[in-house]
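From the shared-data thread, chain only:
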Amino acid sequence: MAKEPVQAVVEARPDETTIAEVFRTVWRKRGIVLIALAIGILIGLWAAASSFPRAPAPVTHYISLTGMEITRQGNVGDPNDRLKIVVTYPNGSVFLPRDLLDPQVLQRVREQLGLGNDVPLNGGIGVSFEAPWTEGIMRRYKERLAVRGITQADIDSLNSDLERDLLSANMGGLRIDVSPAALGVSGSVAVAIAKALPQAWRDVYTDRYRTLLNTDLPNLMAEQDDGDLSNPPSVTAAQMKIVSMLRGLDMMANDNRLATVTNANGLTANDLEANLRQFRTVHFAPFAAPVFATDNPSVVAYRKDLESRLAASKREAETMNRTLQDVLSNPIGKAALQPSMESVVQSDGTMLSQLLALAQRASLTPMVPDIMNKRDQINANIGRLERELIMISSPGAPQASSENPADIAAALRKLTEDYRSLYTASVDRLRTASSTFYADLSAPAIPAQPTITPRTIALFAAPIALALLAAIAYMVLAALVSRYVVRR
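Structure, as tokens:
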């Protein structure tokens, strides 16, 4: 009797379920898959839409600071003192990013753009030191860091260089962020604000705060009339005005930016200084000498003021001389060498103290130029005060001048007008030469926000995949259960 094939025996087993039967069951219930797919798509669309930013991104505007001086400040003798970079205006005053948020600057922006007081400019604008070219510094740092065989000392040195380079680079630029959402304005208005803000800052700080000219330069722009010089107070006031103008003209003549500037009459600072000195020597000094020889209260007060200022400047000069002497003097004492064990120990200690003293002296060396410059300024001020004091302290009884006081007063008014005209021309020259204080690195624009990101794709695909997996798992499980129930 022949045996039956094995395949026939296998097919005859009634308790087995093939994969084909499972797929046929799933296909018959494909409507569940389509419903799950639709639900997953809806959930994915909702999740992806909720991931999109609801508020417009801030408008970013980069500018570089031009016409500014970037210097390092700090106590170089203090090893714990970190690097300090200070940005100053042409007149020497310190610049800070919050200068762009000055109330006068923001008011100028409101007026230019026609914005109402309901727009909180101060709360929706951010200004900070930052420059886009720092990416190159970071790339160079990573390349140097990737060199083989680098030691920990090299890494520490690279970190120090990186900190210094980043700080110096960032201090040379500004980042302006304008948030449309915080201000309650459209993106185009935010772009206009970002562009108008540095312009308003330049105009306000050159017109109102005198950031172009040295703060010590007298402007004499206020209308001052010394009268006809018929009394000691008016003569004293005229003397003080002449001294101020001579100091201002000397500063203009020694400033390379202003030495060639001419006023409305074509006079430079040197020309006007020569005319003013001639007027004081030939006309004013002989006329004012008898007045200064009296004990009039205004003359006495003026003389005492000069004497007190002169004494204070001399004390300050002595202090600067002592400081300079301490820095330049050799702090290392001579060690007495004795041929004994105790002297050897003492010699080692002395050598250590000598090394420490040398290190301290080296750390103080960068202070010398600043100290000497300040000392020279103090000595120059002492010379001016001494000359001014001599002018009003002529010995004996000076002979009265025969000139008409009204003519001298008229000549002084003419010289004062020439000085004011030269001052105005100097401001205009600096405003055009240092025209902007800044330069645009990029035009402010509404940043393009990506509509589809990897996160958006993930949020969209995840619900669909989960819904499909859940539906298929449900149908497979249902097919298996139904098969088992039918066979039971």
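Strands lie at 59-65, 69-73, 84-88, 125-129, 173-178, 438-440.
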